[in-house]
Amino acid sequence: MKYQVLDRIFNKHQTSRKFERLEIDANFYIVDTSEQVRRFADKPDEVILGKDVRLSFPELIGLEEVLISILQGNQELFELEGIQRCLEHSSDLLYIDIYILSEPSQNQEKNRLIIFLEDVTDRMLVKQKFSQHSHETNLLSSVLSSYKNYMDKVITSMADALIVTAKSGEIKKVNRAALELFGYSEEELINQSISIIIDDNQLLQKAIQQYTIFHKYFQNAEVVCRTKTREKVLVAFSCSVIQKKIDGLEDIVYIGRDITARKLRQQRHSAQYSITRIISESTSIKSAIPEILRMICESLGWDLGELWTTNEYISTSTLQSQNYPVLRCVEMWSSRNVAIREFKLVTWKTIYQSGMGLPGRIWTMGTPIWVRDVKNDVDARSQFATTSGLQAAFGFPILDDLQTFGVMTFFSRENQPPDVDLLQMMVSIGNQIAEFIKRKHAEEALLESEERYRDLFENANDLIQSANSYGQIIYVNRAWYETLGYTPDDITNLNIFDIIPPEYQKQCRQIFSRVLAGEKIEAVQTAFITKNGDIVILEGNISCKFENGKPIATRGIFRNITQRVAAENALREQQEQTERLLLNILPETIANRLKIQPGNIAEDYANVSVMFADIVGFTQISARLGAIQLVKLLNQIFSAFDRLCDRYGLEKIKTIGDAYMVVGGLPNRSSNHASAIANMALDMQKAIAIFNTENQQNFNIRIGIHSGPVVAGVIGIKKFTYDLWGDTVNIASRMESHGVVGKIQVSEYTYNLLHNQFIFEKRGEIEIKGKGTMTTYLLQGKAR
Q: How far apart, in Å, do the first and last CA atoms of the chain sit?
């Protein structure tokens, strides 16, 4: 067993090793040592035979039970490893391993402990360095892992698309922006060739050559790419090569930004500018249309363009066939890169009724249409278009002011998703072409009818004249001579201001100055003096012709409106009389509403005051007076009442025989309607008294007042008047008919509105026809 333990100690690390030896007895006293034991002791001076070993090796303090166990044979071996010593007179460290085992004897009391000491400094230093290196490696690995996670997040959050491929073009990595741009999932792209999304198969080789030869990278190379649905997108790629230690294993990094929208805007701005230039420079419609078709196709990437009209090149006869149009293709342009000969032949022979096929639908609807896949479109040419490789189509009307001149249609071999912005732009271009066509038609008509216009000037009924910038007349037509009575000899030295009446001179000189400044006066009214001195009223327009920015001549076209002005003045006077009569019948606000919107008028008023006044004994009075005298007397009384009505801002409703009806609080709503009615009622009593004194009569009136809601308005279509309806009117009438002669009877409701401002006498409860018993009051006068 002893030799097995020694073998474990000496062959532990499979290397040559050197040990020092120390023997101690059962009392832990040193009994023998090797030569170099002192070098391993914590206190070398204490390594003396007979001394306690714990003084020189304090590590054994506390291990007494272990040492005794080894002495007694209960334990074979005890090891202490990696004990550190600081060498005297040096900063170096010493590391030792201690092995303790028993040296048995026949007499157990004489058993000894053998302590082997080994210098393991070199091995410990190597172990520490290895541990430190391992720790540093772990730290570096953690940092690299964190950095990788960080870079993965950066790549994922990039707005630009990132693609990493091998040198062979096999995709190794893509970020989220690339997946969103091209519409694939990550699984669908990884390990696939980059040609699945990039049309340019040479881009990869170009990137490698650029790096290999020039040590430069591609920057913003514009590349046509394809989405999962095979739609085209334009991407600006920057390419770089990631060099690896092994040649031929380089990775290619593509960073791309979708510039499709930007390129489309540039192309469309360019197309609009080019079309505007074509329109401005073209001398005819026929020369402009092919260029417009070509420019739209080339600028916007379409393969075929067509013009459909009801007549060749949109002549003026096109407008005559718009009710039942038959559309024919009159112009076509196609790219040299497409072989569509059969489709063209079919197109030249095809005609469309309104609403049929793509051109017919656009013509009927007057709006642009987009066809994503022509094979699914209801069109006679769909099959031929598909056979020719055409996929998408769109068209727009050449339209202005709801007048359609033609339809333009375009086809593409590419899958083109609907583009609302493009259609909107084409609407604008269609309007622009329509304006060009209208202008050309106008120019042609102007050239063709110039002579006819000259004849028209001479034979026109309007007065046409021309004067130079000083006002000297240089031309007048026949109607001018006949209307004003002058002769050609008269106008030789005649200035325009010589025949303008004094009251029009200032106005006309101001207008003449404005015309010379470049303003066209569309409507002007003036007057000329005829040769025999009469005044002729004229209206018309004046313009000026300029050469090199200078006024050369003014032109005026006038119509004789003398009779019309006289008729208008007479009509205006008649209207004023009618207006005055209408205001005597109706309130002003109601009259104004009827003038604007004839018809019935009815309006609710929540709180007004109604008064009825009746001349008592009118039947007996009329029996003793003549009819004419009676009417004159009534006119005096009611005229006095009318003046009181105006004074208090009240509205007279009507007179019925000897009864007078007035209301306060409408049609203009007011809060003092009751007090105004009360004041008028008191003044009416005074007015009757004055009338009796002046006319030696003994007329008495009976007055009734009630307040509340009414409906007021005008009904009927003949002899209409402004009237009131409602229970308030009925009660006011009962207040008068059940009243006291010479008194003013008011309802309790009106009394509650006025009792703080006026003096009342309570009459008490009286029986009112149709209403039962009501409490009434007699108005005596104003409160002081």
A: 145
- Range in 63-67, 438-442, 542-546 with the lowest mean pLDDT: 438-442
DSSP 460: -
CA distance 59 to 83: 9
AA letter at 15: T
Q: Which domains does the chain have, with CATH numbers?
A: 2-119 (3.30.450.20), 158-258 (3.30.450.20), 268-447 (3.30.450.40), 459-563 (3.30.450.20), 597-782 (3.30.70.1230)
Angle at 440 between CA 436 and CA 446, to 5 degrees: 145
- Short-list 441, 470, 189, CA closest to 313: 441
Cβ neighbourhood burial of 678 (10 Å; 0-12, 13-18, 19+): buried
* 608 pLDDT higher than 70: yes
Structure tokens given for 161: 């698309």
pTM above 0.85, yes or no: no
Residue corresponding to tokens 């009446």: 501
The length of the chain in residues reads: 784
DSSP code string of 253-305: EEEEEE-HHHHHHHHHHHHHHHHHHHHHH-SSHHHHHHHHHHHHHHHHT-SEE
CA distance 701 to 682: 11
CA nearest neighbour of 171 among 258, 255, 248, 251: 251
- In Å, what is the CA distance from 388 to each residue of 304, 376, 383? 11, 15, 9
Rounded Cα distance, 399 and 37, in Å: 116
pLDDT tens figures, 675-705? 999 999 999 999 999 999 998 888 899 999 9
- Angstrom distance (rounded) from CA 171 to CA 204: 12
pLDDT at 89: 66
CA distance 53 to 75: 20
pLDDT at residue 594 tops 80 = no
Eight-state DSSP code of residue 167:
T
